[in-house]
Every structure is written in structure tokens, then in C-alpha cells.
């Protein structure tokens, strides 16, 4: 084999190693016939490699050190929510949209359109918002990559982890309009969910907002010992409106196509070490404290200085921590969330 062909082959197998994030030790899927494809929309809680390497910390060490052993575009030390849901459905993790041409043989399992840092509206991250992500799926339908008939054997995961709200706070001098903005976010999310359903996707799981006031970025000033109640009260409003929107969609479509994946209570169950990880007792050290942190407020996980010197520290055992960095769970954290009864009961509705 000549050198160019050899290099091309090596690159192809490298991509396969990054995106075959599947299942050996993730989860046991349900038995019987079920969905054959998974389509994913949203942000970093679901992104498995769409963000551009020049922009995202997820392509830098120490991200990916648990799985696949190197940075692969996931915002964690290892697997994320998408991987666990794919495992539950007993299919391979769908490839990121960005790599669809290089890994075309994997499109039969669905596709991941999620981009870290994005929301239903534009954010400070120059990546496609959720409306544009749905446009990508529609274009694949137009190009006959998928058919509406095929999509009837698929489910969708829609992740909204709070980037719209972070962007609002960063660009507005006053928080007085926050409740109204929450309403506009949920209204746009409802439009997006209906668009996904109209493509032919059979079941759509949308994540409730996690307790934002418990993320390490919010608890750092409190020594990672206490959540921010004000932030969590705004999360409560979002989640109430989301449940209302999902109920309305099911009524409008005379179906049970839409369901809420209750990450809010799942996170709390893990924080309180209740009902999480039934196969083994919870072992998280302070669940609000992250594994990977910058050495100062000026740095974050994955930061290096101009000489390449690390400006972050990593805990000895990521499995002992719920949070990986100041926003995202570890692989073990996601496993604990996935294993809670509140999430397991929701997932049963996908079959």
C-alpha cells in the first residue's frame, strides 16, 4: 500500500476508535424489538464530537481519559448521556453529524446533531443552534439519506442544559426579564420538538433542566458544599413549563410521542445518594466538587499556558466524582444518573 492510502486508512480507523463509544461496560439494553435509530439534538450533555477542535476543550487533554483513552469531543472524562441512551436501545452510539462523510456506514444507527455550548437560540458559541440542527436532519431527508418510513423506527434525544440562560445573563444587564425569557425558551423548544416529530421520528425524549444551582461553577464560592437556591428556583419554572409544553404536544398529536427525561430529580437523587446505582452503593466523594479544575479562576479544565504547561489539576480517580469539570458529569456521574429509577421509568416509554 502506498503512503497516501496508508495514511487515509489509519485516519479512518482512528475515527472509528473515537466514535464506537459503545457499550461494553455501559449498560444492558432492553430485550425485544425496539427503536433502530437514535437522533440527538442539543448541547454538550449530548455532544459526542461535533464541536470544532479549535473551539472546544472537549478535544483537549484530559477530556476522554476514561473513554476512549484520549480526547474524542465528549465533554467528560468518558461517555455521556447519548452513549447510555444508545446502550439502552441496544444500538451503537450514533456518529456526530460532523463526521458523517468519513463514517457513512454508521448512519444506519442514526446521527448526533448536538453541539456543545448551543441552545434553542444563538449563544456566544459560534455553532449551530437547535433549529439549525433540525435543518440538518431535514436536509438528510431531502438527500434521501433517511426516509420518513425509516424514521418511524427511530427515537430522538433532545438536550437543553442551560446555555440559553448563561447567554442571557452574559448579555443582559438586568435579570428582571428572566421569567419571560424562560417562557420564550420553552416556547421555542416546543416548536423544535414538533418539527422533529414532523420528520417522522416516533418518540422524542427531552431532558428536563438539571439543578443549575448545583453545578460546580455555582457552588465554588460555597466550597462546593451548598447549591444556589435562586438559580434552582428558576430551573423549577423552566421544568414546569416544559412538562406543560410536552403535555400539550401529546394532546395536539393525539399520541404519547413526547416525554420528559427528568434529569432534575435524577441529579438530586444522586446528590442525596438515594436510589442511584442499584448494583453498588454510591461512593461519590462530595458530589458537588469536580474532578478537573483550573489552578485559578483564570483557567479551566484543559487549559495550558503559552509553553504548554498544564493550568489545571485532575483528581486521582474520576470514578469517585460526580462532576468532571465545572459543568459536566463524569462518565460515572452519567452512569449514576442513567441508573436512577426516575430515568429508567422514563426510558421505558421509548419502547
TrEMBL record:
- From which residue to which does the signal peptide run? 1-21
Record-linked InterPro entries:
GDSL, SGNH_hydro_sf, SGNH_plant_lipase-like
Keyword Lipoprotein assigned to the entry: answer is no
Q: Name one Pfam family in it.
A: Lipase_GDSL
Superkingdom of the source?
Eukaryota
Matching CDD domains, A to Z? SGNH_plant_lipase_like
Q: Which UniProt keywords apply?
A: Hydrolase, Lipid degradation, Lipid metabolism, Signal
Q: Which family does it belong to?
A: Belongs to the 'GDSL' lipolytic enzyme family.
Name of the protein in its database record? GDSL esterase/lipase
What species was this sequence derived from? Hibiscus sabdariffa
